[in-house]
Write a structure and sequence with these properties.
4 strands, 23 helices, Sugar_transporter_CS, MFS_trans_sf, two-stranded antiparallel ribbon, MFS_dom, two-stranded antiparallel sheet, disordered N terminus, Growth Hormone, Chain: A, mainly alpha, transmembrane helix
Length: 579
Amino acid sequence: MHIHPLLQTTNDLHRYFTVFPTQRSSLAPATLMEPSNKDHHYHLLAAADSESKSPFSADTQLTSDSKRQPTWPVLATGASDHPPQKLKATQPSLNKYALAGALLASTNSVLLGYDIGVMSGAALFIREDLNISTTQVEILVGSLNVCSLIGSLASGKTSDWIGRRYTIVLAAATFLIGALLMGLAPSFPFLIAGRVVAGIGVGYSLMIAPVYVAELSPALTRGFLSSLPEVFINGGILLGYISNYALSGMPQNINWRLMLGLAAFPAIAVALAVLGMPESPRWLVMKGRLDEAKQVLMRTSETKEEAELRLKEIAKAASSLLITSTPAAGTSSSSNWHGQGVWKELLLRPTRPIRRILIAAIGVNFFMQASGNDAVVYYSPEVFREAGIHNKKHLVGVTILMGIAKTSFVLVSALFLDRFGRRPLLLLGSIGMAISLAALGFGSKFLEFSGNKPDWAIGLCVVAVCSAASFFSIGLGPITWVYSSEIFPMRLRAQGSSLAIGVNRLVSGLVAMTFLSISREITFGGMFLALAGIMVVGTVFFYFFLPETKGKSLEEIGVLFEDQVHEEEEEENHKMLLC
């Protein structure tokens, strides 16, 4: 069996770990953290052997022909003759250091939100100033989403190589260049070039912010902290709407350039602020930098005991994952691990638990964008114009109402995500979206066949758009990022998340680039009824394929998917016995 170099850093391991022989599965990190009650307040397990040994003493040495279960290192918590220590049973509190790191990382998401919001209004002025067609507008809007696929797919490998923190800096710098190109664009091709560069930066940002926050956060507040990127996306959308409204009165050849170019300022602020953030403790452990990981965990935990528990669990998960990595990666130090072999493990030979994780992550990202939310936000002025609102100032003003609704409800969802769990809010949001989109579809259909366009029908469409956006912000909006960043095992997390978010960006681009064309063929009413049907299918998928992850550590979640596989195997065996 190949031994990853992480396990060969004996000086660090001797300082932190003693040997804890166990006959439990090496893929069950939860064995090191046993919940003492249903609220998941953890207590320390006593060491099984009071003598301090080297992790690679004669009786624990792993060789290529070894048949027995390896012994995993765990944190030394003192002499074994002491009774197990229990953490003080308190209600989960929000760690200020983890909150600060999450806020700084999530600020990067403002850039995507601002672009989505500002482009909905800027497109009205770009079309007239550059004299472009509807198809060119679709290409302009969708090109950022399609090109963000490049950034999202590359971000996983990049973050495994240079770390989570510097990947966030790279994302902000790339978007900065794109924003400057768009703001200074003299022609349509130049504008598209800026969209392509900005899209790559957005792709990096969408993957890395949720992953970083999930890896930094304690388990009991991870839902709230990991949903902050979606909060900032919605805040950015609202800022984009406000920018549209404030600048719409300026000359047509200047206003849209200012709208797009202003995104450079938050990009600069993000790039500078991120330099003060800590690195992800899980990435540090994967690189063998245990001292630094412990320091970060000490600051993001409420007590020293909690920090030791988290480090113990992370180190065990890293050991088990890296021990089973391909020997072809044979390196001489743990710092040489850069995520090699992950794509093969994800796509070519996934285990059944990994396959279930992939289905869940890709599925929730697919339905997030297949719901048409981004397209509705991008083209909301077109939708409202079709409904009977023609004044440009009024069109932009109505979008501000939608932005306020989205931002308000995503805050509500973030605050209650760790209390009610992922599944209830996700199912509530998807059911609400299906009903709202159906109402919007019927309202639009009525207006199509109505000559005088009554005010109540216009009001129904406006309320239905705001309602669909609000239910999206309760469910799919924040929970997609939370779920994608927490269900993959540590070694696969960055690149697995990048794959799922790559699907997200591809579907988003396709919907954005075809929304107006399809709507012309089947009308807006038909389009919204089709989206309502998609959300019904999505609700069924969420119910059957997405287990609850509330309150569980990242390492425990992997066991959750393994347990599902074991239950399925037991059911199959039971059926075979009955036959």
